[in-house]
Design goal:
transport, alpha/beta, D-Maltodextrin-Binding Protein, domain 2, ABC transporter substrate-binding protein, six-stranded mixed beta sheet, signal, 2 domains, 17 helices, SBP, maltose binding, about 450 residues
């Protein structure tokens, strides 16, 4: 969600004052959005309170959309929490608006976390604004019943490759998994692409500016990068020939009838996991945060596979990591720093990992999560493998730049136009010029 001009003006002129309303000096207020993680952090809070007599942690959980709306509104009203779960695409703008507390004095050791996670939370000014919390990667979920019926073994699903010319074995696989209303598969003569019963690949929408669970694994495995620098780039590269070829091929799968159409996706109502669970789609790219959802769906026998190898010879996945940030006007700043330091510790992250919901940022926390998933008979190697194997995999981060909300506002309709209306991909060059103009201001 974009910060409005009014909000930006209010924050930059210092109108937001006072910290979280109703919190006592012995209370630390903490906001998060994932209900699945709430029990794990309640357990951490209980241990933290034992270690810090006199300090209480008050946790508030709300859904993703409400979370960001209420958080930004709280900065205006002066009712912001002491600590909140931060997202890499949000923190840059929050830091620029001076609503985050620098965390340089917490003594965060970057080597104590999975590579790259801590570095992402350093602002352009060199100050740290987030303590590493967890990480996730993307893999291909598939309905075993449908893949077995199509004669596709797990080994084949895990060994797929693609290219923008003919789609490679990946396109062949999802074409074969696609079935029309008459029982014809996508690779059979007489297939009716206008009357599809089961799509080979679920849609995750247009992917907007990052394509985390849509086109990004393909673009990255073709050698493309979002910006000219790993962090705080000054030029986006949506005008790249490579990028536009990838997007043209990817959304072209919908034209062929293999990828569920744009209209099948409704954020919150019909996401990829729902399409797979309903039998509308055979496979879906999705993030590690969805593991428990897929495997916990009654009647769905699901498997996972690594992303397809691309023209570079490597498989690619975004590796995102959340962090905990402290607000500039935190009511209990001293308590907040103690809480964030504890949240970033191996003790808390092992506790979180033990719930088998996410992969915590420390190696110890990750190991605890892998063990917890194993107890549930869930193989998570499709998600952990890319982090450990740098020879065959490449991982990359969300683009970290200024004006992230503006980039999103420009790219979202442009990408939707390509997917939903078959707009020429060359039109993205104009959008890219507009974005780089804003960054150059």
């Amino acid at each position: 969600m974009a910060l409005t001009g009014a909000l930006a003006l209010s924050l930059m002129t210092g109108c937001a004052q006072g910290g979280a309303a109703g919190a006592g000096s012995d209370t630390v207020t903490y906001w998060l959005w994932d209900s699945n993680q709430l029990p794990a952090y309640q357990a951490c809070a209980k241990d933290f309170e034992k270690r810090n007599p006199g300090l209480d942690v008050k946790i508030t959980q709300m859904g993703w959309a409400d979370y960001w709306t209420k958080l930004t509104a709280s900065f205006i009203a002066g009712t912001e929490p002491d600590v909140f779960t931060d997202h890499i695409q949000k923190f840059g703008q929050f830091a620029d608006l001076n609503v985050l507390e620098p965390l340089d004095d917490l003594g965060i050791d970057e080597s104590a976390y999975q590579p790259g996670l801590a570095a992402n939370w350093t602002g352009r000014n060199g100050h740290r604004y987030g303590a590493p919390k967890d990480w996730d990667t993307v893999a291909l979920f598939y309905n075993k019943k449908l893949t077995e019926k199509a004669g596709l073994a797990a080994e084949e699903m895990g060994g797929l490759a693609w290219n923008p010319e003919d789609g490679g074995t990946f396109e062949k696989a999802i074409a074969h998994l696609t079935v029309d209303r008459n029982g014809k598969r996508g690779d059979e003569e007489g297939f009716d692409k206008n009357n599809v019963k089961v799509y080979g690949l679920a849609t995750g929408g247009a992917g907007d500016s990052d394509g985390q669970t849509t086109w990004s694994p393909f673009a990255a495995s073709a050698g493309w990068k979002y910006t000219d620098k790993v962090r705080w780039g000054t030029e986006y590269q949506y005008d790249s020939k490579t990028f536009q070829e990838v997007v043209d091929w990817y959304f072209g799968l919908a034209e062929k009838g293999y990828l569920a159409p744009f209209t099948d996706y409704t954020d919150g109502a019909n996401p990829p996991n729902a399409q797979v669970a309903s039998g509308r789609a055979a496979t879906a790219f999705d993030g590690a945060w969805m593991i428990s959802t897929y495997y916990g769906t009654k009647g769905l026998d699901v498997g996972t596979a690594v992303t397809p190898a691309g023209p570079t010879g490597k498989r690619a996945t975004m590796m995102n990591g959340l962090a905990d940030s402290i607000t500039k006007n935190a009511h209990n700043k001293a308590g907040a720093k103690k809480w964030v330091r504890y949240l970033a510790s191996d003790e808390c992250q092992k506790t979180v990992g033990g719930y088998g919901i996410v992969f915590p940022a420390t190696p110890g926390g990750t190991a605890a999560a892998v063990a917890a998933y194993k107890k549930k008979d869930i193989d998570v190697s499709a998600f952990t493998g890319p982090v450990a194997d740098k020879k065959d995999f490449t991982t990359f981060s969300f683009p970290v730049t200024d004006y992230a909300a503006d980039v999103y506002a420009l790219m979202r309709p442009a990408m939707q136009d390509v997917f939903a209306n078959n707009a020429p991909v060359k039109g993205l060059t104009k959008t890219n010029d507009q974005i780089n103009f804003i960054l150059g201001q």
